[in-house]
Sequence to fold (123 residues):
Amino acid sequence: MNEISVVNRAPKRKRYTQAFKHKVITASLQPGASVARVALEHGLNANMLRKWIRLAKNNTTDTTPSFVALPMPGQASSVSSARQGVDSESIRMEIPYRHQSINISLPLSQMERCLALLRELLQ
Fold:
Protein backbone atom coordinates (compact mmCIF):
# COMPACT_ATOMS: atom_id res chain seq x y z
CA MET A 1 0.00 0.00 0.00
CA ASN A 2 1.14 3.44 -0.84
CA GLU A 3 -0.83 5.53 1.63
CA ILE A 4 0.26 8.36 3.83
CA SER A 5 -1.90 9.24 6.77
CA VAL A 6 -1.49 12.18 9.07
CA VAL A 7 -2.34 11.44 12.65
CA ASN A 8 -1.64 14.84 14.18
CA ARG A 9 -2.51 18.18 12.66
CA ALA A 10 0.19 20.78 12.21
CA PRO A 11 0.28 23.11 15.22
CA LYS A 12 -1.43 26.46 14.74
CA ARG A 13 0.53 29.65 15.01
CA LYS A 14 0.51 31.22 18.41
CA ARG A 15 -1.34 34.50 18.72
CA TYR A 16 -0.13 37.03 21.26
CA THR A 17 -2.23 39.79 22.79
CA GLN A 18 -1.32 43.44 22.36
CA ALA A 19 -0.81 43.69 26.12
CA PHE A 20 1.74 40.85 26.05
CA LYS A 21 3.55 42.39 23.07
CA HIS A 22 3.66 45.77 24.82
CA LYS A 23 5.05 44.17 28.00
CA VAL A 24 7.80 42.33 26.11
CA ILE A 25 8.70 45.34 23.95
CA THR A 26 8.92 47.55 27.04
CA ALA A 27 11.16 44.99 28.76
CA SER A 28 13.47 44.82 25.76
CA LEU A 29 13.83 48.61 25.57
CA GLN A 30 15.06 48.94 29.15
CA PRO A 31 18.69 50.06 29.59
CA GLY A 32 21.01 47.07 29.62
CA ALA A 33 18.35 44.68 28.30
CA SER A 34 19.16 42.37 25.41
CA VAL A 35 16.46 41.61 22.85
CA ALA A 36 17.67 38.03 22.59
CA ARG A 37 17.62 37.53 26.37
CA VAL A 38 14.13 39.03 26.75
CA ALA A 39 12.87 36.88 23.88
CA LEU A 40 14.29 33.72 25.48
CA GLU A 41 12.79 34.61 28.86
CA HIS A 42 9.34 34.84 27.25
CA GLY A 43 9.70 31.83 24.94
CA LEU A 44 9.87 33.92 21.78
CA ASN A 45 12.10 34.02 18.73
CA ALA A 46 14.39 37.06 18.88
CA ASN A 47 13.66 37.95 15.25
CA MET A 48 9.94 38.08 15.99
CA LEU A 49 10.54 40.38 18.95
CA ARG A 50 12.73 42.65 16.79
CA LYS A 51 9.89 42.79 14.24
CA TRP A 52 7.40 43.74 16.98
CA ILE A 53 9.76 46.50 18.15
CA ARG A 54 10.16 47.83 14.61
CA LEU A 55 6.41 47.78 14.00
CA ALA A 56 5.75 49.49 17.33
CA LYS A 57 8.21 52.27 16.49
CA ASN A 58 6.64 52.75 13.05
CA ASN A 59 3.09 52.80 14.46
CA THR A 60 3.73 55.30 17.23
CA THR A 61 2.93 58.86 16.34
CA ASP A 62 5.47 61.17 17.87
CA THR A 63 3.51 63.95 19.55
CA THR A 64 6.61 65.95 20.42
CA PRO A 65 7.50 68.48 17.76
CA SER A 66 10.85 68.08 16.06
CA PHE A 67 11.62 71.76 16.61
CA VAL A 68 10.83 73.67 19.76
CA ALA A 69 11.43 77.40 19.78
CA LEU A 70 13.08 78.45 23.02
CA PRO A 71 13.26 82.03 24.22
CA MET A 72 16.75 83.45 24.11
CA PRO A 73 18.14 85.54 26.97
CA GLY A 74 17.60 89.21 26.20
CA GLN A 75 15.16 88.43 23.39
CA ALA A 76 12.44 91.03 23.03
CA SER A 77 8.86 89.89 23.49
CA SER A 78 7.38 91.89 20.63
CA VAL A 79 8.50 92.46 17.05
CA SER A 80 8.61 96.25 17.36
CA SER A 81 10.88 96.19 20.40
CA ALA A 82 13.03 93.57 18.69
CA ARG A 83 13.51 95.89 15.72
CA GLN A 84 14.59 98.72 18.04
CA GLY A 85 17.34 96.62 19.60
CA VAL A 86 18.61 95.05 16.36
CA ASP A 87 21.69 97.22 16.03
CA SER A 88 22.57 97.03 19.73
CA GLU A 89 22.99 93.23 19.66
CA SER A 90 25.62 91.50 17.58
CA ILE A 91 26.50 88.13 16.11
CA ARG A 92 29.78 86.77 17.41
CA MET A 93 31.60 83.81 15.88
CA GLU A 94 34.89 82.15 16.63
CA ILE A 95 36.13 80.02 13.74
CA PRO A 96 39.11 77.74 14.37
CA TYR A 97 41.61 77.97 11.51
CA ARG A 98 44.84 75.96 11.54
CA HIS A 99 46.63 76.89 14.79
CA GLN A 100 44.67 80.06 15.44
CA SER A 101 41.10 81.26 15.55
CA ILE A 102 39.24 83.95 13.63
CA ASN A 103 36.86 86.09 15.69
CA ILE A 104 34.04 87.81 13.83
CA SER A 105 31.56 90.23 15.32
CA LEU A 106 28.76 91.69 13.19
CA PRO A 107 25.67 93.67 14.15
CA LEU A 108 22.47 91.63 14.09
CA SER A 109 21.23 93.80 11.24
CA GLN A 110 24.02 92.25 9.09
CA MET A 111 22.70 88.71 9.49
CA GLU A 112 22.47 88.20 5.70
CA ARG A 113 26.17 89.06 5.30
CA CYS A 114 27.00 86.68 8.15
CA LEU A 115 25.07 83.86 6.46
CA ALA A 116 26.79 84.57 3.14
CA LEU A 117 30.19 84.47 4.88
CA LEU A 118 29.37 81.14 6.53
CA ARG A 119 28.22 79.66 3.22
CA GLU A 120 31.49 80.71 1.59
CA LEU A 121 33.59 79.29 4.40
CA LEU A 122 31.74 75.97 4.40
CA GLN A 123 32.20 75.33 0.67
Observations:
- The radius of gyration is 30 Å.
